[in-house]
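tool_call predict_complex ligand=adenosine-5'-diphosphate
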Amino acid sequence: MSEPLILCENLIKIYRLNQEGGASVEVQALQGLDLMVNAGEMIGVVGASGSGKSTLLNVLGGLDRPTGGRAIIGKKDLGRLSERALDEYRRQQVGFVWQQGARNLISYLTAIENVELPLTLSGIVGKPARVRAAELLKLVDLQERAGHRLEELSGGEQQRVAIAIALANNPSLLLADEPTGELDTVTAQTIYDLLRSLNKDLGLTMVIVSHDPGIAKHVDRVVAVRDGKLASETVRVEKSDGGEHHVELAILDAAGRLQIPREYLEEFEIKRRVLIETTDEGILIRKPENHHEREHSSSAGEQAHPEYDRSLQAGNETLRAQSSWSKMWQSVKSRFTKGVRK
Ligand code: ADP
Ligand code: MG
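tool_result ok
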């Protein structure tokens, strides 16, 4: 097993938005996310819009600081680095690829000039910059188009230029936020193939956010984010005949909590409580027995909630009190009537 390069534990990111009038609203973009990625691994991150995927990348890339929990990359605890150390981390260890690669590129410069520009900004100038830029374009298989202006390149080629730039500082971690979001399926495939070969050849660890569930076939593992937490992981399993298939695994958080897919809960009409039993094969989660359900759902209907639970408990107490009172009353009454009879 290789070492983990990324370790997120109970990662929390809260954005505070100041509204007019001085009030502020909190958005909990990451709500206790646990994630481990091995060095050299290539993972995909999927999830609905707003689930926290970009926030996760921004934290991993040192663009945003965690509000709570830990994000450890290599030996660096990103939440504890000084501004300066975080800046250094971002410049030396991470490469970013965005959805609209072209947005960070300059359309009237050639491909090679676009790659040279950030090199120049980081202090590499003249011939060394040109040589390095040519090398980078070769890595992304674009050397033939080096002299073309960016506006003459296709979307896929522009994204290759963006990837070349992301590799300029020899990062150990490549973060890509929907890198194929604006590309057609065929071009997207070529970009995934390129990322995969860079992952293999350079041993580059990659975290790729995608809206495309089909990303599973391009990466080692896919994690699904829901409401700022890891909801499931899809891993590749080799079959005995040499083929492979994908298995989706639910995630246990650090406290042993599990999120069960809503469809399963609906299918088995499981509402708020479950029976957990062990069997020879594992742990079985079932709808509670009928009498159990009836006892708890008859008076409050379908939507049981904490208030209901408390009132149920209070009700039981009253019943118990009433029954002991009535027992006492019965015995007093019987003694009394016996006495009268005598
Ligand atoms: P995704 O990339 O999965 O679509 P994001 O990470 O962009 O999700 O967003 C997660 C949540 O955090 C959303 O509710 C979004 O509105 C909010 N959010 C993201 N970035 C910011 C920010 N800079 N300021 C305030 N809220 C933000
Ligand atoms: Mg996003």
